[in-house]
Structure formats: C-alpha cells, structure tokens
Amino acid sequence: MTKPLVLDLSEVSADDVAIVGGKCASLGELFRELTAQGVKAVDGFSTTSDAYHLLLETGGLKKNLQKLLKGLDVENLDELARVGSEARALMLETPFPKEIETAIVKAYRSLCVRTGKKTCEVAVRSSATAEDLPDASFAGQQDTILNVLGDARLIEACHQCYASLWTDRAISYRTARGFDHFDVALSIGVQPMVRSDIACSGVMFTLDTESGFREAVVINGAWGLGEAVVQGMATPDEWVVFKPTLKLGFRPIVTRKLGVKEVKMVFADDGTGTQVRDVVESQRKRFCLAGFEVLQLAQWACQIEDHYSKRAGKSQPMDIEWAKDGVTGELFILQARPETVHTQKEQNFVETYKLSDNHGAPLVTGVAVGEKIAHGKVHVLLNPDKLKDFKAGDILVTSMTDPAWEPIMKRASAIVTERGGRTCHSAIISRELGLPCIVGTGNATEILKSGTDATVSCAEGERGNIYYGSVNFTIDKRIITDEERPVTQVMMNVGDPDRAFAASMYPNDGVGLARLEFIINNHIGVHPMALVNYPNLKKREDIEEIGRRIGEEDPKEFFVRSLAEGIAKIAAAFYPKDVIVRMSDFKSNEYARLIGGLEFEPIEENPMLGFRGASRYYDDRYRAGFRLECLALQRVREDMGLINVKAMIPFCRTVEEAEKVIALMAEYGVR
Hints:
By secondary structure, the protein is α+β, with helices and mostly antiparallel strands. Helices cover 35% and strands 21% of the residues. It is built from 23 helices and 26 strands. Strands 15-19-18-17-16-20-21 form a 7-stranded mixed barrel. The protein has a 6-stranded antiparallel β-sheet with strand order 9-8-7-6-12-13. Strand 10 (263-267) and strand 11 form a beta hairpin.
C-alpha cells in the first residue's frame, strides 16, 4: 500500500509525530479533539515525512548532503555558515517530484473550497519530526511563511520550508543534542490565514514563564500577525489569569500590563507575503484584547492543558499561539505544544540569586526573564553576521533576536533586547539556556556601550535592571522538603506582588501579612484622594503626571483596578491558604510623598502616632480613599473568587474605632 504524501488535519493526531512532526501532529490533535469542546482550531493539511524522504532520494540529494556534512565542526562559525548555505542551496535546486507537487496542490485546492474560496491565503508552517518533544525545542528553527496565495507560491513556500531544515542554527542544534541529521525529517502544515493582520494575535503559556507557578495562564498579545510577538519585534500587552477560580466561573485577571506594541506585521501591499508597519499612537495606548476575550483564551488554554495532561498521564503545561480574526471578530487557536523549560526542572530544587547593595541606579530597565544575575562586558551587536567578533561571556545587547542569533546566544552570559515580551524568541531561548535576559528595554543599544563592565539582574522582581560594573551577588541553592517544616504554622510576609509566585514555591501556611503600602507606592504612586479629586488639584505638575499614569482610564478605577490586581496576585499565589491583607498604613508624611499627597496630608510633629490606621478610614479627609481600598478588596473576593483574602485593620486604638471601621467596610461591600 502506497504511503500518503499529504494528510488532512482531521486525519492526524498527537500520535503521528513520526509521520507529520510535532507541530502538525499537535495541529491535528487540536482540530480533531478540541473543536468538539468549543475550542476554535483551524482546518488544514500536512505533508508527511515520506514526502520529505522522497525528495531526499531525488537526484542524489541525500548523498550530496551527507558528503557536505561529513567532518563538520559546528563550533567553527565560518565553516558552519558555508556548509549551511550550500545545504540550503542543494535543497532549493532540487525540483519536487511530480507526485509531491500534485498532492500538495490537490490538498490546497480542496482546503480553499472548504473555506468557500477558489484560492485562499494560507500559512505554511515547518514541522520537524522531532520538534516540540518534551526535552527539545525545535520551535522557531524552521521557517513559517505567512499570507501565501496560489498554487505556484505555495510550492515555492514549501520548498523554502524544506530548505530551512538546513539553517546554521538547525544544524548546530541537532548536532548539540545528538540528533542524526537524517533521522529528523520535515513535514509542512498548511492552514487558512486568520486575518489577525487587521486585529491582533499572540502567545500564551499555562504556567508563569519565570517562576514556573502552575496555576496561571500568561497571555501576551499585540496588533497584527503573531510573528511580531514571537520574534520580539513588538513589546506586547500582558495578562495573567488564575486558573482555579476561572474554572469556577469567576473573572480572575490578576495582572494587566499595557505593552508599547511598537510595530505590527500585516499583509504586504502586493497581496502576498508580509510587511512590518509602525503602530499608530492610539492603538499603542489601548489593549489589543477586551477582558472577556482574555478570559475566553484562558479558558481554552485550560482545556488544552487538561487534554494534553490526560494524554501524558501527568501535568503538561502548554505553549499556545492564538489569533483574532479582524473580519469576523472570532478568536482562534493556531498552535499548541508542550512547554519545554519548567517541565524539565526538579520541582523541589530552589536556586535564589541575591544582588549586593553596593550598586548605583540602573542604567537600563526592562522586563526580567528568569531570576538569575550575571556580569560581563557589554557587546552591542545589531547584526548576527558579526558573530565571530563576539567573545564567550559577553553580554549580548541588541534590538531583538530571531533564530539566526542562537549560536551567539549560547556564548553570552546574559541577553538584553530593546523589544519583546516574556514570550518572545529572546525570552524562550534564554530560559532554555539558563541565562538572565531583559527584554523590552527600549533604548539599551543607545545607553550601554560595548566594552564596559555591566551586571544584568533579573533577581529583583518583574523589572530587570542593568547596572554599571561587576556587582557582587550570591547564589543560594537548596532542596526543599516538607520534612524540614516545624510543627507550628509558618506564614509569610509578602509585599511585592511580582515576587509572590516565586515565594509560594517555598513551604508555607499562607501569608500572615500582605501590606498594601508596597502596591500603592510602587504600582500606583498617586495619593488616593488626589485620584478622587482629579483633575481639581492645585499643582499643575501633579495633574499632568496623574494624567500620564492613568491615560484614558477613570482615575478612581485606575486605583481600584491596580490595587485589586496587586492583592489578587498575592492571593492567587498562595490560594487556597489564607492571605491576610493589611489595609493601608502609611503615616501622614509617607502619604504626602505620593503624587498629589501634599494637598491632602497634615504636617504632624509625630506621624507615627498621628493620622493613620483605623481613625483615618472614617475621617472625612480620607473616607473616600478608604472606599477605594474596600472596592479593590471586594473585587478580589467577589469578581475574582479569591475568598482566601482576609482583611486586617491596623492601628486600631479603641473598640469604638473598630466598630466604626467594620460598619464602614460593610457599607462599602466588604464583610
């Protein structure tokens, strides 16, 4: 019986990795099994590994490649570049056997008919037969070609995909991992384009990508086609959704961060291929997804994770690509593959990096990837062709990376990019290599100078910092077991929401004190009463700064949302254990330091014993501000379902004060 050269995705499952590669096997699994559960996956077809092997036997192609690769030293970058270039040329110069071309064109025309068109735009995706296995990440090493239209262009794109199996980075990766080059075949997935070029798209993980916390869905998104997010061209919006209470029907978006979204990838003006355009200011200032869409994606992510976990017989976090169609407004899942970094880590091993205090202000800041620290000499590099100039142990500083940068990334002590988010190429490869990485810095190539010593720190929360010089740091490594626990309960003090997921990995009995002051000071920065009275404030500079911070958001909603998200992230990290949240306990002089604060705070001889705590809450000078605190707490408990949050009232002097505050909280919806 003749083996098929092409299979519809409806004929493919996750068991067919050897036939269609990891990516296409997963595409088939999504389409076959999860569409019935309400997850919108995309139709399509895949070439098989037999088609690739048939091509290799054409005109002595395989023998020529074997001869070319014999004795290759992948550490010699010049030799690697020469061999890779010649291998790709051999692939492109070898014409498709007639039976392969006929099978692809027939499947393409049938797919177009199913979409209601005579010809249709498609995405053409490479799928290596060892790709996306739990212990390897071939993802991104081979080509994906978007917006391909017509028979001839499709055949050309397929040829390009086959050739991409022989890029320098792919050859190097297979050699390093011990894969025989000819044990790895390439299949090609073809699917109708989702018109995200006129909407948005992105990536999501069913765990926190930095700490490995398993109960979160992290979603990144930006305008246009998803390649802009994956390649790190655009710094995306980010949302974090808490899985346990999402499954109970609540709306637990515990983090929402607006990305810069500098550029977007769209269809090219000539009707085929893609091009990159700047994003207009109005789109940069707003999120690319509405809240209900974020929750829908998170729900699908949970369903996909549950399905793959059931298949694997163990928890299986997933790496998922999504897109929104700008014509229909529908959301779609484009790809799903097992997460390959935290899944392989020893769960009870904790490694903690701590930076010494003898450093100045950071030169550059961005989004931290991982939790490590490294130092070395800065090497600003804007072109991967200059790889041979890069010395092992240097800090790579560039605008963004793609798979062509991987040979040099392996030599770096740390990586710093100007664009990208936590799910871009730079971030994913840095995690795989175990390197500290800071993305989305905006101006690193301008500020940092080649040859200077610098320290890259990802150990200070979600913001990564680059400092001048070689700053000392310590590393604490330990295996944590419950056998070391004392008989008494041990609850944590947690102030920084950005560190809550990582902190929850240590043995604990919940949070004994979560202070609101850190969230208000670092995530809001504005006096609550200044937001209540905005824009009717005395100082123009305060009005302007508050306007810059809140954007188009209602000022009171800005406070409630920001505070609720900070509380919720801590509560989610330790759920269902109790998290005791102390309502704000700034002293009057500390409140005065917040933006707009001087206008609303008295000057006191001894602020330690003055206008603070319970007596402040029911005072007319702060009552409206306390209402906002209560609304935030109510949102965390009732909208997000985090009922493990317990409120603490500080500095309560008398029983009468306690009764007044409890009554006021009830009036504001907190009981």
